[in-house]
Design a protein that fits this description.
The complex is a heterotrimer of chains A (352), B (527) and C (331). Chain A is an alpha/beta fold. Chain A has two domains: 24-134 and 267-320, Periplasmic binding protein-like II (D-Maltodextrin-Binding Protein, domain 2); 135-264 and 327-351, D-Maltodextrin-Binding Protein, domain 2, CATH 3.40.190.10. Chain A has helices at 3-24, 47-57, 69-78, 96-101, 142-148, 177-190, 194-203, 212-219, 239-245, 279-289, 292-302, 315-320, 332-351, and strands at 34-39, 60-65, 87-92, 105-106, 129-141, 168-171, 207-209, 232-236, 256-258, 264-273, 305-306. The longest helix of chain A has 22 residues, at 3-24. By secondary structure, chain B is mainly α. Chain B has two domains: 1-34 and 305-527, MetI-like (MetI-like fold); 44-254 and 271-299, MetI-like fold (Orthogonal Bundle). Chain B has 22 helices and one strand. Chain B has helices spanning 2-36, 45-52, 54-87, 93-101, 108-117, 124-149, 152-160, 165-193, 197-203, 210-220, 224-251, 269-298, 303-306, 319-350, 353-368, 371-381, 395-417, 421-429, 434-463, 466-470, 479-486, 492-519; one strand at residues 473-474. In chain B, helix 4 (93-101) packs across helix 22 and helix 17 crosses helix 19 (434-463). The longest helix of chain B has 35 residues, at 2-36. Chain B is globular. Chain C has two domains: 2-221, P-loop containing nucleotide triphosphate hydrolases (Rossmann fold), CATH 3.40.50.300; 233-330, no CATH class. Chain C is globular. In chain C, a hairpin with a 4-residue loop joins strand 16 and strand 17. In chain C, strands 6-7-8-3-9-10 form a six-stranded mixed sheet, sandwiched between helices. Chain C has 331 residues and is of the alpha+beta class. The chains are: A alpha/beta (352), B mainly alpha (527), C alpha+beta (331). Chains in contact: A-B, B-C. The interface between A and B is large, with 69 and 65 residues. Strand 2 (60-65) of chain A pairs antiparallel with strand 1 of chain B.
Chain lengths: 352, 527, 331
């Protein structure tokens, strides 16, 4: 190729690249009527719902995803002086005290806060508004137990039964919020003797992996496309409906089930960031998050349950899952105070 | 005349070095300072506290242990293969070489999934195998290039003097290659030491390295102090490894530019068998996971591929859009990395060896610092306009460029060095001004270096996962991150889609890397 | 005319060339001759402007070129390793300098054809560089260097990579081409044959300093120092006292100056002849195609002489000498 031609080609390529790159930069930044929502990777909202918000309020929403819930919160805390956005969604009850103690939120009591299920309103100071909740429960592979003619476990204690030796997989609470929630559940249920329980689980051949993904898609036999061999996993109450929803073709019964008596309730909050540029817009967003339109969208987007009482659930949820009537709970303050110690002790008892 | 040249060289080096300083050194220094000096005084007790913690000590021991084992295993698998590839001449040699180099840029998450799919148990062995998979490429490239340049006459002389083949290998060949082996080993050690995705996925919770602990302490616990101590320790280890390699490089000798290409002995059955035995482990290790991944993706009738253009529920983009985004980011990152890298490579080739060593060390540093440290450093450093880049789209390409920069410089320098200075002198005396000399002579080498380096930088950016995950991503989902997210949800369609995306990603990165490696081996002289 | 004044080239703390003065007249070939490591190539590069000068001046026709960059000196350089542009073909290589001087396209074509014809490579105009033989490559290098009509052509060991038989032929051709173009030529070599075949003037260089300059015949017959003499082929040496303006050699008196004289002969100046004055005993014999080289011990010491016929080691011989060819230097 002649030097002139190759030069031209280079120039054209560079121009194209820069042009397309510039075009891809979304939203033009936080000027002109755009409010920024900082959140974690699992946040999802369907486009029509978000569009409705923009239509009604005139505000465009720019979503920043910063890793998992813990990492996202820590980044928010780190940037307290100059926040990355206007509102932060994704603090859950295990992290709530950390957020509140760091004073990252400003107080805002949404007018429709009263529609939220009272048990979920864990922040009496109204710095954090509950938007959804999920239950971390034991999931089982129904097929496995049917084929082996073993009765499946029902309670936490059952998991330590030799009948279920080498069948359980869970996540490391140090690296997985799912694992941490489950650990909290065992603390709530067993009180001071929770370490004994874990000793028993360990003796019963418990498998621990780093995160939910490996546990569920890697080790759990009931997950679609998984080569896993363990039929008992720590997952969510919404996992069975998810299995049905994402299966092809759609089955009539769920292949997995969630054990109601093993659930720990995780509540998820949103709050206005202290020092936000568009405070009024953040308020409007929080209000919007408690409206029926948004709440109805939540289950199939994030596979959690809406916090507003009486929100209709999609069919796949009503058919294939149920909301645990008596989940384990602990106060956010307790969790905030003791989690580090729990993780250390758990590590000593289970891993080392 | 020389002072002008020296100033020009300095100017050339300043821009890329400034880039590294602003986007890497500054954020890292800031976050370390925040961790170690939060009370306004430098907290040396923090180090003591870390060394008093038995769990952390165990983590450090394990990190060194697994990195050492990984290096040894990689050398054991890679050196014989390199020997065959350098010494023997057979059809498809270059293709096999390119194949062995490709794994390096493959996304960790894809490979880890493939290993799991193969049923490899989560264990230290799995970690070592995965490290070997990725890093055989380093041995093949670094030692292979050096081996090609070894003067065979020294070996021939030894053989004439009565040394058997093993003694020749031990007394003549190995010392000549010592520098290259030391360099390659230190690079493999560095990568294994700072490995994150592999440890996390294939190691499971029982295995923690300094890198995974840094992530935990920074992102999860916001214990910046402990994280800072660990980061400093990691940096020290990295610098020590690179320095040791540099030291070994300098002391080695016996490498001379090749006078004549030896005619290899005609292969007999025995040498062919030996060659196969030497080459097989490396090939098997590299090919098997890839084959498995493809098989897994197509196992259920290529379902996932049909959904590439639809937006999955709960995700902001369709996979096709993520592919486009990844490509766009890769283009910008490549332009940055190649532009800056070539400037640096030019300054290094024209300058003195001390500058070269310093540059090499500086440029490699980003690989020795955890991405989460850099990411968090960004957050506290770029928080005020006009430099409020924390949520700008360009942060991701910048991060990718920082990671690709050492590879660009490493690839470009030998190509640029190969320009015969006499040819430049000849052109000058024929009337070509320095700019003209560059245009007529160096430009070709530069273009070639740029092409090869661009292919690698592109592949690296496409497959980059760890850093991208830790950096703010305003609605830009790259393919590796999307794969990670899809695998983070239950449901068959998600897994299918993730597998399909993985295959697409691997095809893209592998092609780019393959093309790049072949381009770097063209026989025809450039100048 | 090139004039070099007090030129010095240093590499860091190492001194390659010290205080060299020389002139290169137009239309003639000057050779810088010296052993390896004597600084020849550094001197050449210094004159070309490729190395910075530690001291001294380079002038052409009284114009000071010292500060001028190499691409504006109008000098040509033919490298020992040819340094051809591998990405261009033969014709494009030759055309390169013409392009740099912005000649019109038609002029370029004409000149390229002319140069290729001059070196006898017209048929190879479109050939790739890597397919050329050593001799062909050398001729391309020559054509390329001469094409832009440099006022000075410098050659770095031009015949080094050529085998012996062709060397004479190529030297003659080189001479012809240089004469035909009327260029001043400066060549650098360690090879006596190369220098004395090609050059009209010789500059002897040793350890970075000029030992002697002068017309080739003059330098050959009258080397200025013992070291130069040895370099130029003197193998039989004699040190004798001088009485009444002459040193008494076994073959006769030779005029000399000083209390003692050093007398040297080349092997070609001594011969084995039946009635020669000096007897000796053969210690070694070598066959040298058209003669035999004979080493013998004599009363005055070891001598090396030529013999038409073979000799036997240990046999007695008689040595004759050409008195007029002796090199005489004060000792």
């Amino acid at each position: 190729m002649s030097p002139r031609r190759s030069r031209a080609l280079i120039v054209v390529t560079i121009a194209l690249a820069l042009f397309s790159a510039a075009c891809s930069s979304p939203g033009g930044g936080s000027g002109d009527h755009t409010l920024t929502l900082v959140t974690h990777d699992s946040f999802a909202v369907s486009k029509p719902v978000l569009a409705a918000f923009t239509r009604e309020t005139g505000w465009k929403v720019r979503i920043l995803k910063n890793g998992d819930a813990g990492a996202a919160l820590n980044q928010v805390i780190l940037t307290k002086g100059a926040p990355l956005g206007d509102a932060f969604f994704g603090v859950d009850n295990t992290l709530l005290t950390r957020a509140l103690d760091a004073h990252v939120f400003d107080r805002y009591a949404a007018p429709n806060l009263r529609t939220v299920t009272p048990a979920l309103r864990l922040d009496p100071t109204d710095h954090a508004t509950p938007v959804d909740f999920g239950d971390v429960c034991i999931n089982i592979d129904k097929q496995y137990f049917a084929s082996k003619s073993i009765s499946p476990p029902v309670t936490l204690d059952d998991l330590a039964d030799p009948k279920y030796k080498d069948l359980v997989v869970t996540e490391n609470p140090a690296t997985s919020s799912t694992g941490l929630a489950f650990l909290a559940g065992t603390v709530a249920h067993f009180g001071d003797r929770w370490t004994d329980y874990w000793d028993r689980l360990r003796a019963n051949g418990l498998l621990v992996v780093a995160g939910w993904e490996q546990a569920y898609n890697g080790e759990f036999s009931g997950a679609a496309g998984s080569k896993g061999t363990r039929p008992i996993v720590v997952s969510y109450a919404s996992s069975p409906p998810a299995e049905v929803f994402f299966a092809k073709p759609t089955p009539t019964t769920a292949p997995t089930a969630s054990l109601d008596q093993t659930c720990f309730r995780q509540v998820e909050f949103v709050g206005v960031l202290h020092g936000a540029k568009h405070v009024a817009a953040a308020h409007e967003l929080i209000d919007f998050m408690l409206t029926r339109r948004f709440q109805r969208d939540v289950p199939l987007q994030m596979f959690v349950y809406p916090s507003v009482t009486g929100t209709p659930l999609p069919e796949v949820f009503t058919t294939f899952s149920s909301i645990a009537p008596h989940p384990f709970t602990l106060t956010p303050a307790r969790i905030g105070r003791d989690r580090r110690r729990w993780i250390d002790e758990w590590t000593r008892h289970v891993l080392r | 005349m020389t002072t002008r040249r020296a100033i020009a060289r300095f100017a050339l080096a300043v821009v890329p070095l400034a880039f590294v300083a602003v986007f890497f050194l500054w954020p890292v220094a800031a976050i370390l300072a925040r961790g170690l000096g939060s009370q306004g005084t430098f907290d040396t007790h923090a180090f003591g506290r870390v060394f008093d913690d038995p769990a952390l000590l165990q983590v450090m021991r394990f990190t060194v242990w697994q990195a050492t084992l990984s290096t040894l295993l990689t050398l054991a698998v890679g050196l014989p293969a390199t020997a065959v590839l350098s010494r023997a001449r057979f059809r498809g040699r270059l293709g096999i070489r390119a194949l062995l180099v490709t794994p390096f840029v493959l996304p960790t998450i894809a490979v880890a999934t493939a290993f799991q799919s193969l049923g490899v148990e989560r264990s230290l062995g799995a970690i070592l195998l995965a490290h070997c998979f990725f890093n055989v490429a380093v041995i093949v490239r670094v030692v292979g290039t050096a081996w090609d340049a070894v003067d065979p006459r020294a070996e021939e002389a030894a053989r004439v003097l009565g040394a058997g083949p093993l003694r020749v290998a031990w007394n003549v060949t190995l010392p000549a290659l010592r520098a290259a082996i030391a360099t390659a080993a230190s690079i493999v050690f560095l990568f294994s030491f700072t490995s994150f995705g592999v440890i996390l996925v294939l190691g499971g919770p029982r295995f923690a390295t300094i890198e995974t602990e840094i992530y935990r302490y920074t992102a999860e616990l916001l214990d910046l102090r402990t994280a800072a101590v660990l980061s400093v320790l990691q940096l020290v280890a990295v610098v020590a490894a690179m320095t040791a390699a540099g030291f070994a490089s300098r002391r080695a000798g016996g490498l001379r530019p090749l006078g004549h290409r030896p005619r290899p002995a005609p292969p007999n059955a025995r040498t062919r068998a030996l060659a196969t035995v030497a080459l097989l482990p490396a090939l098997a290790l590299v090919v098997t996971p890839v084959v498995e991944l493809v098989r897994h993706a197509f196992a259920r009738g290529a379902e996932g591929f049909t959904h590439l253009t639809t937006t999955p529920v709960g995700l902001p983009d369709s996979p096709a859009h993520a592919i486009v985004t990844s490509l766009r980011i890769a283009v910008v990152a490549t332009l940055l990395a190649v532009g800056l890298g070539l400037m640096l490579a030019t300054a290094v080739t024209r300058g003195r060896s001390r500058l070269a060593r310093f540059t090499e060390l500086l440029v490699v540093l980003p690989l020795g610092v955890s991405a989460v440290t850099v990411g968090f450093g960004f957050l506290i450093v770029f928080d005020r306009p006009p430099l409020d880049l924390r949520t700008a789209w360009i942060i991701v390409p910048i991060a990718h460029a920082l990671i690709a920069l050492p590879f660009v410089v490493r690839t470009a320098v030998p190509i640029l060095r190969a320009v015969d200075p006499h040819v430049r002198d000849a052109a000058a005396l024929l009337g070509a001004s320095p700019a003209r000399v560059w245009f007529e002579i160096d430009r070709r080498a530069v273009t070639r270096a740029a092409g090869v380096a661009a292919a690698f930088a592109f592949a690296i950016s496409l497959g980059e996962f760890g850093a991208t995950l830790f950096i703010v991503r305003p609605e830009t989902t790259t393919v590796p991150v999307m794969i990670y997210r899809l695998l983070g949800r239950p449901g068959a369609t998600n897994v299918d889609l993730a597998m399909a995306l993985t295959v697409v990603l691997m095809a893209l990165t592998a092609t780019a890397a393959f093309v790049g490696d072949l381009g770097g081996h063209r026989r025809r002289a450039v100048i | 005319m090139l004039r070099v004044d007090g030129l010095a080239v240093h590499y860091g703390s190492a001194v390659a060339v010290t205080a060299v003065d020389l002139t290169v007249p137009d239309g003639a070939v000057t050779a810088i001759l010296g052993p390896s490591g004597s600084g020849k190539t550094s001197l050449l590069r210094g004159i070309a402007g490729l190395e910075p000068l530690a001291a001294g001046r380079v002038e052409w026709d009284d114009e000071d070129l010292t500060a001028r960059p190499p691409h504006r000196r109008d000098f040509g350089l033919m490298f020992q390793d040819h340094a051809l542009f591998a990405h261009l073909d033969v014709a494009a290589n030759v055309r390169f300098g013409l392009r740099m001087h912005h000649l019109a396209a038609s002029e370029q074509r004409a000149r390229v054809a002319e140069m290729l014809d001059l070196v006898g490579l017209t048929d190879l105009a479109a050939r790739r560089i890597d397919s050329l033989s050593g001799g062909e490559a050398q001729r391309v290098a020559l054509a390329r260097a001469l094409a832009p009509r440099p006022r000075l052509l410098m050659l770095d060991e031009p015949l080094a990579s050529v085998d012996r038989e062709r060397r004479e032929q190529l030297a003659v051709e080189l001479h012809r081409v240089i004469r035909a173009t009327g260029t001043a030529a400066l060549l650098v070599t360690h090879d006596l044959d190369e220098a004395f075949t090609l050059a009209d003037h010789i500059v002897l260089l040793d350890h970075g300093q000029v030992v002697q300059t002068g017309p080739a015949a003059e330098v050959w017959r009258r080397p200025a120092t013992v070291g130069a003499a040895r370099f130029l082929g003197v193998v039989t040496e004699l040190t004798l006292p001088v009485t009444t303006g002459a040193a008494a050699t076994p073959w006769g008196p030779i005029p000399a100056v000083g209390p003692t004289a050093w007398i040297g002969w080349r092997a070609s100046d001594l011969s084995v002849a039946p009635d020669a004055p000096v007897p000796g005993t053969v210690t070694a014999v070598w066959f040298r195609r058209d003669h035999f080289l004979v080493e013998a011990t004599t009363a005055i010491g070891p001598v090396t002489a030529r013999s038409a016929a073979a000799q036997i080691v240990g046999a007695p011989v008689r040595i004759a000498a050409t008195l007029g060819a002796a090199v005489v230097l004060p000792a």
